[in-house]
Amino acid sequence: MQPITSRDHPFFKQLVKLGKSARQRKTSGLTLLDGIHLIQAYDAALGSPVSLIMSESGRESAEIKNLLCAIDYERKTKTTILSDALFHQVSPVKTPIGIMALISIPEIKSVSDNKHKAFYILLEAIQDPGNLGSILRSAAAAGVSDVYLSSDCTHAWSPKTLRAAMGAHFLLRIHENSNLVETAQQFHGKIIATSLQAKKHLYQTQLAGPIAFAFGNEGMGLSNELSQVTSEQVTIPMPGKTESLNVAAAAAICLFEKVRQTTNRENTGINN
89: Cβ–Cβ under 8 A, 6 or more apart, which residues? Predict the structure, then answer.
C-alpha cells in the first residue's frame, strides 16, 4: 500500500479538519482516536472503527502489528498509511506511536435508569479539554451513568479530550448542548454544587439515593441560574494554604465521596 504523502490529498485534509474543528466533528459525526489503548477501548465497547490510519514507521511497530492481529483489523477495517511527516501533523500528541482510528461519534442510547440510584454530572462551561477528559475518566470509574454538558463546554469528542479520558467516553452517556437548568429541574434527587462560600462541607452531606453533581467553569464557577436550582452547596475542606482546587480534582473528590458512602451503606446492609 502506497502511503499518502501529499498535503493536498482529500483524506488528509479531512483528518486535519477533524483534529482541529469541533464544527467539522459535529457536522460529520466523526472523530479521531490516537493510540493503541483508545482503539482497544473503543473496540471492546463499540466494535470496529470506520478506518485506521498508520504512519510509515508505525506500520513496522511490533506493538501495532500485535494490535492488528489481535483484533483482526486488517481483514475487517480499511487502513490508510500516511507519511511520518503528515501523520505528525494530524496526531494531537508530540510523539505519536503511529496509529489512529477514525470513528463515528456514538449515538446516545436511551436507557431506562433506576431513578432511585441515578448518578449524574452537570458540567457548565468547562473550557479545558484536559479537565473535561479527567472529569469523564473519574465519572466512569465512579459509576456515573450520564454526563450533561452545556453548549459552551469544550467539545467532548475532541482528540485531546478523548486522550485525557482514556476510554471513559465509551462507558458513559454524554449529552452535549444540554439545558442544564431544565435538566436539574427534572432530576429526581439532590443536586450538589461546590462553593468556597458554603457553610456545610462535603463530608457532612448525605449522598444516598439519586445524586447529581454540578461543576462550573474553571475561573467563574457555576452561573447564578444553575446555582439557584441546586439542592445543596458544599465546600471541600482544604487545610492547606491553597485558595481552590482544579475542577477535575474537585469533581474526583466529590464523586468518590459518593462511592465511599454507598459502599459503606452496602457493607452495613443499609439501603438507599
Answer: 7, 16
Q: Which of 169, 34, 158, 180 lies closest to 108, judged by CA? A: 169
How far are the Cα atoms of 19, 37, 54, 67, 78 from residue 63, in angstroms, in the given order? 24, 11, 12, 6, 19
Domain boundary, last residue among 104, 133, 150: 104
Please write the tens of the pLDDT for every residue from 61-93.
Answer: 999 999 888 776 655 688 999 999 999 999 988
Map residue 44 onto helix, strand or coil: helix
Q: In angstroms, how far is the first alpha carbon of the chain from the final one?
A: 59
pLDDT, one tens digit per residue, over 199-211 is 999 999 999 999 9
Do 129 and 232 belong to one domain? yes
Same domain, 157 and 90: no
DSSP string, 205-252: S---SSEEEEE-BTTTBS-HHHHTT-SEEEE----SS-S---HHHHHH
Domain that holds residue 45: 10-104
- Residue 3 located in a structural domain: no
The neighbouring-strand residues paired with 200 are 234
| CA–CA separation, 92 and 101 (whole Å) | 13
